[in-house]
Structures are given as C-alpha cells and as structure tokens.
C-alpha cells in the first residue's frame, strides 16, 4: 500500500464493454481553422473519420454503441455557464452541424442515441440508466473535445466505477496542448486507459470470434 | 455569435460567494517527496499554508467557508476505481493525516464540513443542498490536487451553473505539469477563473467593508 | 419550533413558476378500462382534458410550459425494475400512444419537451438544467399517474428545494385510492400544494395582467 | 405484454442483499403522542425495536448493514422545503435524539453509517457509492417514516434498478393511513416487496447456513 508500489494496468476490457461516441456530429466533419478563441487540431476530421473504424468493429462484435450528441435549445436557456469561457454559441438544435453524423459514422435506426446539454455524457442524461440496462462495466470513448467532453465524461464514468478507456487517435482537442494534457489526466486516473484505434479494433475482433 | 467574438470575463464574484476548501487535511501539511507514482509539487505545504489567509479573509467578511475532507472507509469498500491509476491507498478514516486540518486552517466548531469519497466535492455529498441553502452563486476553490479534486469539482460546479474561481497560488497539483494544465482547463471553462490569493483577500476585504 | 406550531401555507406561487405536464401523451386520451393489474380512474380523460385549460392559461401568461414524455427504447433495455410490479410494458418508442399529445394539449414547436425513462421527471433528464436556466422556483404539475410519476416528481422537486404544487383535478391515478393517498402525501410535504385548475387559471390570469 | 398478464413476484432476495436502517435514531425510541401536525403510530417504538431482530439476523448472516441518520445543521441552512408542510424542526445535529441508536440497535464500530439531509437515503449521500462497492442488488429497508423516508428511499432505489424490499412490521408511519398507503405504493412498484420480519429473519438464517 505504499506510494512506491508498482502500477499494474487492469485488462483493457473488463466485463461487458460499450463504445461511447462523444459529440461526433455533422459539424465535426467540417474543418475548422484556428480562431482567436480556439486553436483546434488540424487533423480533427481525420481523427473523427478514424473513429468510424472503431464503430464498425464494435458493431461487428455486437458491442453496444451509444452515440451522444450535444444540443442546446434554440432559446439558449440551457447554456448555463458554457459561454463564460473559450466556447462561443455551439450546437443549437436545428442547425445542420448539430445533427447526428448518421452517414459519416454509419449509424443505424436502432442505435442508442443520447442528447446532452452539458459536457459530461452523464450529466442530465439517461446514460447511467442505459449502461445499467446493458450491464456495462467498461466504457470506451471516442470523440471530442478530448479535453472537455471526453475528459469530463471519463471522469464521471471513473467516479461511477466504470473501467474507462479513451481511443487516443480517435479523439481531438480544443488544442494539441490541451488534448495531450487531458490524455495524461485520464491515464493518471486509470493506468492503461489510453489505447489506439488498432488496439481496440483488434480486441473487438477477438470478442467477435469468441461469440 | 462568431467564434472570433472577444471573450469578456464575468466579475470575479457574482452574487453570494462561498469558499470551498478542497481536501486540505492534516496530511497536506506533511511534505511529500516525489515517488515513483506521483511527482507532487515541492511548495505544496507553502500553498496550503497560504490558503489560510484566504480562509481568514472569508471569515472576516462573513463569507461561508466549506471544508471538504476526502475519507475512505477502512474496509476500502468505497475506493471504486481510484486505485486503478497513479494514486495508491489514501485518506483512510482513522488515519491521522485524514483528519480535518483544524488548527492549521483555524477551523471553528460551526464551520461547514463535508466528507467525500470521490474526487468531486459534489459527488455523493450534500454540497449542492448546502450551496442552495446558502444561496451561493460563486464558488471559490483552494486545495488539492489542482488537477484532480479541484479541477473536477470546478467542472461539476461549472456544469451546475455556478460561477467558479480557483485561487491559483493556494492549490497544488500531482505535478507542476498537471497543475498548470488544470489551471488552463479551468480558465478555458470560465474566463477569469484563475485568481491570486491577494486578489481574493482584497475582494473579501471590500465585501467586509460594504457589510 | 414545537410540533404543535400552526402550519402556515406558503403562497401558491413563489418567484418564477413553470408548468410541468407529466406524461400526458397520446395514449392518455384513450379510455382504459380497469384491468387485473390496474384499476385506473374512469374520469382520467376528463382530467387530462382539463389540464389543457391550465396549459392555455400558462401560455397566455408567458409562464414556461415543460411537456414531459415517458418513452422506453424498443429493445426494452431501459425498463429497469419497472416491470416487477403492477405495470406492464408501456410507452415504447414508436408506438402511437407514446407520442406527445401535440394536438390535444395545443403544443407548439418551441415548447420545452423532455423525454424520460423513469417515473420522476428529474431522473436521468435535463429537467434541472432547464429549471435553473429558466430561474424557476415554483413547479406546478398536471398529468399522471398522480401516485407514481406525479408524486415522485413532486418529491424530487421538493428535495431539490422547489416550491411544488399539484393541480388535483388535472391529475389521474392508477386507482382512486392511490390517487387520494398521493395527494395527501404531497400536501404533507408542502402545505397548500393541492390546488384546483380554477385556482391556477385565476393565478395565471393575474400574472398575465401584471406583466 | 398485455396489461392482464399475471404479476409474478421476483425472489425476495436477488444477488447480494444489504439491510438499510432508515432513520432509526435515539429519538425513535421515545414514544411520541399525536400532535396537531402528526398523528404518528402508537406502536412505533415496538416496530423499531422489532427491527433489531432483523439487524441481528443480518449481522449473523454476514449481510452488510447500513445505518442511516437524518441530521440537519444547527444553522438550519439545509432544511430546504422540509418545514413547508407537516413536519416541524427535527433532527438537529447535537440534539440527543438525532444520534445513531447505537445501543438500541446493537451497532458496532465498523458498521456502515450514512448521514443524510433529505428524505431519500440516496439524496446527497454516498449511498450509491457504498452499494456499488458492496455489489448490492437487493436493498431491504426498515425504519421510518414508512410514508416519507422509507417510501422515497424505496422509490429512488427502484429507479436505480435495485430490488427493493420493505419489512412491513419494522417500519412506522406519520399515521396509520399514510403508512398503509405507502406500503401499497411500494408493493405496486415491486410485487412481493412487502415482507415480514419473520420472513426476513428466516431468509437471513438460510443465507447464514449456506455460507
């Protein structure tokens, strides 16, 4: 129990996994140049496109996929403090960029969909109801921003006792610097949390073969 | 509503403030050398000691102070996934380092005290009941780790619509690098969130004079 | 502070009110005869129809109206323990009875809508985000069942410090007996909570004139 | 899936059980005559005394016991809307009646204890952290009031997917009428939820012998 004890990572997938696609929406596939507020990452679209490979592998292995959309009411009543910082008005209902990326991600009619108003996918949503219903123990995240919605969803999942994993080449941040720091923070919480798309696709293929 | 719109920081204190002292416990005043797991910050004790000046200024101004303690049951039943990463067993009930830092922080009998099991001061606690009862709109945080309990408490407060501030020279991180990144992340969420102890002491003194 | 102290009801509306329409969906307007599981109330449709008068009065007074729908995913993954008791499968997504009662209640495009998976309108939804955004202090409920979704939404609202009111002739129960008991329970929690549609319509008209 | 389908009760105990003792505190053993506000039940003390037999049987079977105490801060800041109805000021910290009933219930040093500010044992507490840590699936409740803290804790447990049971001769209500209605409401939610102390003691004895 000493602080010097070796850290041993848990298995990548413990029990029933679920793939959570965090805020990869129509607008995520429109390249965004750096602004005075947000630097973004130049390879963001590439990263979200790569997430599709993980989605497809999950689908083939029968692993539940939960697509999460951030959307704000057009009256802007539900932004809370979200406009006090670096983010400007975003994800209004009815804007084309807010829609689920149905074609881009190959979403099907019966896929699980959750709409959220805040950063964490657990905050003010039925995510935990759904995860309990599915018997999920491990949540695997792709999407964006690495340092905001992904990071804070990871933290909530972590505090709710889920094994949490982040596919580091399928997430994109508000800046490279913030992206890197968030990945380090997630790895701090759960050793072995950072994984590659290839690792995850391989693991899903192995699950598929066992089934 | 363009992304290029200038960010204008809100006032430092909006409405009723409360000072939240996050996990400054007896053990926080024992210097900890870097371990193989955690680097710590060499001036941590200095930073927690400085927090006392903010506590005292809040008290003089009649601003509510909420002291939060992390404590885990001795059976270790409530660690959840907290031992899957960089942290080893910590803050067991009954260990001397887990106690509230009564003398070090000048705590009084009737100060508000909250015990938590997770990182966020809101998770599994009566913090929101208390903040609502006090009519608080702005929460000001000191304590540690900057990048864990402070950061994730800030995020929850932010998502619950509180104006959140962090006193950057009264918080200490699991490493300098993580500390800096967390402060940047908080500033990203709410512009002007990062404040100095001197700023806060001055603001509290001004409130005191108005009262 | 003695137990014998007189109970003095608070004003019917304190601060900003909102009207919450609990689970009055398309199917609510289809008369349901008693079954071996549920007795229902023979005047249920009449009661839900009367709720329309309160909705209209709220709209004229500019009081926010929040329409809540219970809906379960077709895979039935999110029923939790809801089928362990008197209720059978209900409110599946895609069933006509599950739809919002747009015409029956005169719902408009921009009305607030919330979908829930559990009994309480606060459980796993963005209700509190919305109420905070609207600055609501008093929640007024119509809908059904009085003893299930209305009662347990009232209890959550109560525990979250909202002034809660129930329009007793615009709610309908799983049985008369259960309906009556639930109304008594709500009145126990907040004296003066039980109100008539007429009281509410009059109060809303008064607010309208002040505006 | 028709409403006429027979209701089949689930087993009394599914998976890992825990016994939750709701608000049986020192003051619960002081007989309270009816007041103008609350009728109480004349056999309340007898009922809480009987709860001890269930506590003892749980202990002998190695079933976790969680003692819950309602306590309000002396500044009364955390009563929320609890004084708007039939209840007057109650359970202040530091009052003798607020203490855990250590001797009366045979509590041990290492028993799980939770302090709450609201009716539900889940609201603003670490109850779910603890239940998850213990791997609990079935929660069994004794205590009071049947129609307030027990009922609303049961409802939250129900909505969180726990199998919920109430020991009907070990709970006491704010009145007989309200007690009966609450028991019916709990049975509505989960068939077979109402059980006797004898049933529970027998079941615990059987678990003990299996161990």
Automatic annotation (TrEMBL), chains A, B, C, D:
Gene Ontology molecular function: any one: hydrolase activity
Protein's name according to its UniProt entry: Cysteine hydrolase
Coiled coil: none
Residue intervals of the Isochorismatase-like domain: 18-191
Cross-referenced InterPro entries: Isochorismatase-like_dom (IPR000868), Isochorismatase-like_hydrls (IPR050272), Isochorismatase-like_sf (IPR036380)
UniProt organism field: Acetobacter senegalensis
Keywords (A to Z) from UniProt: Hydrolase
């Amino acid at each position: 129990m000493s602080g010097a004890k070796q850290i041993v990572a848990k298995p990548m997938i413990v029990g029933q996994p679920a793939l959570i696609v965090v805020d990869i929406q129509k607008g995520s596939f429109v390249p965004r140049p750096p602004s005075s507020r947000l630097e973004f990452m130049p390879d963001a679209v590439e990263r979200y496109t790569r997430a599709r490979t993980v989605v497809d592998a999950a689908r083939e292995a029968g692993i539940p996929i939960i697509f999460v959309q951030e959307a704000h009411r057009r009256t802007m009543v539900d932004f809370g403090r979200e406009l006090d910082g670096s983010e400007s008005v975003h994800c209004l209902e009815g804007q084309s960029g807010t829609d689920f990326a149905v074609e881009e991600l190959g979403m099907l009619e019966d896929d699980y969909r959750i709409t959220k108003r805040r950063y964490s996918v657990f905050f003010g949503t039925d995510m935990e109801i759904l995860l309990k219903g599915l018997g999920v123990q491990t949540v695997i995240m792709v999407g964006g921003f690495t340092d905001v919605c992904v990071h804070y969803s990871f933290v909530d999942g972590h505090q709710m006792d889920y094994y949490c994993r982040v596919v580091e080449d399928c997430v994109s941040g508000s800046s490279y610097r913030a992206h890197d720091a968030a990945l380090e923070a997630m790895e701090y919480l759960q050793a072995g949390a950072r994984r590659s798309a290839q690792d995850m696709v391989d693991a899903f293929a192995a699950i598929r073969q066992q089934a």
